[in-house]
Amino acid sequence: MNTREMTNIALKLAGLSEDTVDTEIGCAGEDVKRVLAGIDMSDATLLAAKQLGYDCVAEHHGIMGKAVRIGEQMYKDHIRIMYENGVPVNVAQKAIEARAKQESDKMHSKNLNRQAEFAKLIGMPYVGIHTPADLIGQRIVQERMDALTKDKPFTTLKEVVDALNEFPEVRSALQDPVIRVGSPDSYAGKVVVLFAGVTGACPDVYRAMFDYGVGTLIMMHMNDENLKAVREQNKGNIVIAGHMASDSIGFNRILDAWEAAGIEVTRTGGITR
Q: For the chain, where are the E strands, in sequence order?
């Protein structure tokens, strides 16, 4: 199997028809039989993989050259997520546009091709697969939350956290899921899992979702500034599932599919299981 075929498997599992700006083949390879995969990898990991006889390195956070357009994808993805959860499209657009521009501006200063260029230098095939894994993980956890809250309007945040802990990736992570806004006996209301969208949004997005019917957001992570804003809004709840655990849920499904296709995969670099 080659790196293009590997990436296509990830896209298909995520329901995508083309690469996202944060999914890229940094160094193409053929006849891949052994993959070293991780959430976060480094030049040292690439070199070690070469010395250990791996045919490819796969990284979840492998941001490369196309990420210069990441603001565009963030803009479209968050509008779609909000619209699918009841936010009028015009409100969704206004809520995310400044945050998407901020992320785009940040990428303008990044050394985006550094790791891909090193992979080419040492001849180590290298792929980065971000949004597809996030979409897969988001879908899986959302299905569990939908089942939890179906015909149960008084579901509590404690029950939400208990359901998250059913996932082996969550149980084996160093960080436990935690309620950041709300309390264990707070009613969850409509629970929405927000793992995809490239990166975290902003208070305007969270307020829009709460205003149009969402009761609880399950996030991978959220900074103190955004948490403070959500607390002051006093509209909804925030549950943090944990970054490595959340990333691993989706990424593991891709790695499982590669293994089913005959590739040997070694997990490292933050993957939980």
A: 23-27, 34-38, 56-59, 126-129, 178-181, 190-194, 214-219, 237-240, 264-268
Instruction: Give start and end residues of each alpha helix (H) in 85-211.
Output: 89-107, 114-122, 131-149, 157-164, 168-171, 203-211
Backbone angles phi, psi at 130, to 5 degrees: -105, -75
Higher pLDDT, 6 or 200: 6
Q: Is 31 exposed, middle or buried (0-12, 13-18, 19+ CB in 10 A)?
A: exposed
Q: Report the alpha-carbon distance of residue 177 to residue 179 in Å, rounded.
A: 7
Considering only CA atoms, which of 170, 179, 176 is closest in space to residue 248?
170
CB 158 within 8 A of CB 257: no
- The amino acid at residue 218 is I
For the stretch 29-33, contacts whose Cβ atoms lie closer than 8 Å and that sit 24 or more positions apart, written own/partner, are 29/2, 29/3, 29/55, 29/56, 29/125, 30/2, 30/3, 31/1, 31/2, 31/55, 32/1, 32/2, 32/3, 32/6, 32/56, 32/125, 32/263, 33/262, 33/263, 33/264
What is the token pair recorded at 44?
């040292």
Give me the half-sphere count of Cα atoms (radius 13 Å) on the Cβ side of residue 200. Answer: 17
> Residues of the chain with pLDDT > 90: what percent?
96
- Per-residue pLDDT band for 108 (boundaries 50, 70, 90) equals confident
Alpha carbon dihedral 115, 139, 241, 175, in 10-degree steps, equals -50
The predicted pLDDT at position 63 comes to: 82
Task: Name the residue with tokens 């403070």.
Answer: 228
